[in-house]
Design brief:
With 116 residues, the protein is mostly beta strands. It is built from no helices and eleven strands.
Length: 116
């Protein structure tokens, strides 16, 4: 079974930084697209950052200039570097993947809390 596991979340002060990691295992079909999403209580799921087609990167408007997504092509792993964090960034963050058969997979989610 395909599994995606996030790590690196936690509590951070406003203005601080955090780096999230996602590792996929059990894949039988190569991964085409990878991304990060988040959901805060009472809000809809929001796209944070996506790498599509090997190199095209899209960021959500609320995180442009502060967050950076990257992928390690030698491993089934990808990352989200979060800088200048604000309380509004607090949410459960989910990593995602889409394979070349267009099947989608999701991690279990990891909490990020930005608070003083």
């Amino acid at each position: 079974q395909v599994q995606l596991v996030e790590s690196g979340g936690g509590l951070v002060q406003p203005g601080g930084s955090l780096r999230l990691s996602c590792v996929a295992s059990g894949t039988r079909i190569p991964i085409k697209d990878v991304g990060w999403y988040r959901q805060a209580p009472g809000k809809q799921r929001e796209q944070v950052a996506v790498i599509r087609g090997g190199a095209m990167i899209n960021y959500g408007s609320s995180v442009k200039g502060r967050f950076a997504i990257s992928r390690d092509n030698a491993k089934d792993a990808w990352y989200l570097q979060m800088n200048s964090l604000e309380p509004e960034d607090s949410a459960v963050y989910y990593c995602s993947a889409r394979d070349y058969e267009l099947s989608d997979f999701w991690g279990q989610g990891i909490q990020v809390t930005v608070s003083s």
